[in-house]
């Protein structure tokens, strides 16, 4: 149940007809309602450009839920949920339209959560509209989506526009990876287990791999994606957030700023990749047609339908070094791409082999210890260790074996709330630790900009890879050159 000492709230969803609202926000709000996590008087006000009456609006939202939720709509929950719904016809470029919203938001005691599920070039107009009607007062919060800008400079412009109307404590920058259960578990794994907390540095770890592989292609977002590419769409935010959590020092407590302070230090310590290393440490790719699960997949260029040429990357792999005492000499290999063989996100920690002991000769030919953190699917962990094979043999023969923990096989771990459910709830409660602070976004952009700038300077084109494969061969070469292999 929600904490009744906190003020109740209303949600305002700008962009109620958009893809994000349909696929993620309404289903998550429905599930929060089903879990009794919304206040009785919470309303959900959809903002969009349409002449819809309430009946039409309710039908539309019900259709979204039917289409995008795995579970069936329950009549009782739908009745409760639909009573919360209202529609407000606003073109955010017409400031006077906000007067209608002001009329609806008539309870000064309530927190208002404004979700900007809209293109970033509308953020400034929304802020102005809210400001004009004092809807940016201290009861008001905003949630803004990634990517915030397409470079350090453009992210500053957006952050500055928003900061004219809202304090940092009112701004919730969402990165949905931070709401995934398995990502939240990284904190527990690292800091609640002495097994790992004491063995998490360059004395014990050889290298770390972070893979975020997607099966999907561009899914009707070609125009947006072609401007951004995988580096800006995925690495700048999701992958660098994962890396920061894996690499950060232990925060002094769970407070938002304690966690964000540690993450930002990691981002500030990312080594810049020298011009002369750009081909050694970075690989970009673009998919051509291929096969996935026996189906023919069109190339990136054909997905667009207009035969437009493009050098946008749909795949990136990088060797990242962190310039601090804990991580000196431990490379982080990052890889992410569209149209890879499976949807699979995982972090693999490769521990160093033991050198000087009585097994040492034998050990050199055996795999090193690994901790495999499966973010999705098959959420869970594997630990790979060496065990003696039972036998009467007088010498110890060792074999790499797995300790496997899988969420779905454990009664207490079966229900995984979705990332957006978690993040909407945290915002309702005013908790910012799972949201990204301005300096984190900006530090991540500075580092990503430096790489993109070098790619452009050296006119680096993406290597082609067939859909359904693990990206360009050069990505394998990048890691093999260091004497290692992708997991
Ligand atoms: N879709 C996704 O999975 C993800 C999206 N995001 C981010 O979320 C945000 C929204 O994305 P998405 O839902 O895909 O975008 P869409 O283009 O699907 O939706 C945007 C919505 O904004 C509305 N809109 C645009 N201009 C105005 C205006 N002047 N007044 C009122 N409404 C307006 C559009 O209304 P109309 O229909 O009338 O044009 C549309 O419903 C973006 O910032 C995106 O980068 C981030 C991660 C994932
Ligand atoms: O933010 C984004 O994330 C999705 C991948 O999210 P996931 O939760 O399904 O792993 C990605 O497909 C999209 O391009 C990007 O904008």
From TrEMBL:
GO terms for biological process: glucose metabolic process; pentose-phosphate shunt, oxidative branch. It comes from the Bacteria. GO terms for cellular component: cytosol. This is Glucose-6-phosphate 1-dehydrogenase. SUPFAM superfamilies: Glyceraldehyde-3-phosphate dehydrogenase-like, C-terminal domain, NAD(P)-binding Rossmann-fold domains. It catalyses: D-glucose 6-phosphate + NADP(+) = 6-phospho-D-glucono-1,5-lactone + NADPH + H(+). The keyword Flavoprotein does not apply. The gene is zwf. Its EC number is 1.1.1.49. The active site is at 238 (proton acceptor). Pathway: Carbohydrate degradation; pentose phosphate pathway; D-ribulose 5-phosphate from D-glucose 6-phosphate (oxidative stage): step 1/3. Residues 188-486 form the Glucose-6-phosphate dehydrogenase C-terminal domain. Residues 12-185 form the Glucose-6-phosphate dehydrogenase NAD-binding domain. Belongs to the glucose-6-phosphate dehydrogenase family. It comes from Buchnera aphidicola. PROSITE patterns: G6P_DEHYDROGENASE. Transmembrane segments: none annotated. Catalyzes the oxidation of glucose 6-phosphate to 6-phosphogluconolactone. The keyword Oxidoreductase applies. Keywords: Carbohydrate metabolism, Glucose metabolism, NADP, Oxidoreductase.
